[in-house]
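Why do we bother with a discrete structure alphabet at all? Because it lets us treat a fold like text: something you can write down, compare, and reason about line by line. To make this less abstract, here is a complete entry for DUF1800 domain-containing protein. Read it the way you would read a sentence in a foreign language you are learning: slowly, and without expecting to understand everything at once.
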Amino acid sequence: MNERDVPRRRGDYDSYRDSYYESGYEDQTGYMRADRGGSGPHFYDPGSVSRGRGPLPDIDDDADYDEPSNWRRRTAMIAIGGGAAALIGGGAYAVTQFFGEGTRTEPADAEVPVDTAAPAYVDQNQSLMNGQAGLGVRKNTPTTGTTFGTPADAAKNAVVVGNTVLPKKDPVRHLASRLTFGPNTKTINDINKLGINGWIAKQLKPETIPLTRGEQKADAELVTWNMTYEQLKAQQGDLDKKGIKADNQNVQYAIAKQLFSDRQLFEMMVDFFGDYLHVSAFHDGNELVRAAFERDVIRKHALGNYVDMFIAANSHPALLRYLDQQASTKDQINENLARENLELYTVGAFNGYNETDVRQAAMLQTGRSIRDGKYVYRPEQHYVGPVKIMGFSHANPTAEGGEAVQEAYFRYIALHPNTARYMAQNLATRFVSDTPPKTLVDAMAKTYIDKKSNIPAVLMTMLTRTEFWASVGQKVRRPGEYLTATYRALEINPEAPAGFTSPNTNVSPMVQGLADVMRKLEEYGHAPMELPTPNGYPDVYVAWTSAGTMVNQWNDAYNAVVGGRKQFTWQKPETLIAAPPATAGAYLDALSKKLINVTLDTARKTAILKIAGPNVTAGTPVDATFNGAIAAVVRALFATPHHHLR
């Protein structure tokens, strides 16, 4: 068994679902610490199935920036986080700290009913939002909305009623935060130049957006990414000697795209479908085909029609091997793929089908297999005879015609009304709210059916509804999203700095840097494609609340501010503002506007100014280094709820 792999069959995951919360403290070095370094979604322990779980590693940086004394930083970090000690405690109270108490009134004991007979992968987002934690978000979520002719019109007419620390009428920031992995100066400038409608239209046609230098380097230097199965197989020995693994480079390619691409909405959709139609990156036997799944299934159809993506996925060796379809024959039927096709990839768990439907679907899907790293249909292994799955029925009279019947079935369930609603629910959860409004989900589901699963059309329905624009402050960045947002705000440069040397000459500095980022995301339990189980990463904040994760994020932000990942080029923090103001308050305003796209409230400004010294006020004269505290001040901005919120 691959060290990254765990059993995939139903019922094998209970030992990994050990919800836990961690307490944080600050040691004498000035870094935030946590008692346990494990991280990730709390219904399983990714530390036990990935790269270890233990003490948080020390950050190794030899930068010239010293943080001020511990007591000032500790006090300030609590204040700027809106009560950070409570925030990192997890559960419903943590949700309240981010989202506020809300304005709607509901019974205190109101809960969404939980299905006690739920399958292994009952919609995790909705089940995680049951109870008091979910109520804290629902109180701030709009209950209804209206469709307008354009996104800009919807933005203009939306009214934000929920409590939030974010500005309620800044649609440019809202759009940039929701539809990218984190806005930078170019993102904001592009939206202002093109307008909301123009920017969205361009993002929905990613082929019209030039590749950035970072993307060009990723294409050239992640050498396995574009290799065919035959090429990878032929060169595997030489690649192994150099320590180059195709599955690692597949994950690193995704990270590079998230960090450097200007085609941000496209990359957001690639990541979304990486969770929705999830195939683990490190499943045994898929080393040479997982990248092709990413290219030919996910990326090819991420802004196309889902029905085409779903059919392509069921004809790809990566998915077939991941869910044991190649072992399913007319004489020995395996239900794994048939079950997940219904439960995860189309209609949703227990949503209109039963165990008989699963068995019938598994019988119908026999014959789909793998030969020499490619999909093949084996008619001699196909079950022949009538099948009935939900509302689909077919005589299935011949083995030779079985493949066509299978594709007719795939098309049927991919275009099923229940699939439309499940897709809409998941998209709205990703982009709008952890508890998305029913009115919005209904509208998106209708478009899915009307437009035959066209994803851009569904997205446009979402963006022309006021619920999207009224959901300010309703999404918290997951750990990987926090990292990418931080790096993008700092405008990470993919080039190695002058004088960079490395003993590893087999891969470029950029690839080494991406591998370093990948390891950090594995610490978080949120590296692209790495979840071993087929349900994909959860989208809701309560799945990720832990002190260990938040402290680790703040430490990594500081490491980035001082240029700790030396394979990349970073701006020195004192150069982030070209002509910094001469007083502390104005300088802090300029930094917060550039890095987190807000002007902070007086209380948080005061708290952050304490980092520079106990007597520093808004009018205190400062130099470009903020009198030596610039790195700590910038890190503090990245610890605010404003930066954690999308």
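What the structure line is telling us, in plain words: The two ends are 38 Å apart (CA to CA). Strands lie at 24-26, 32-34, 368-371, 374-377, 387-389, 392-394.
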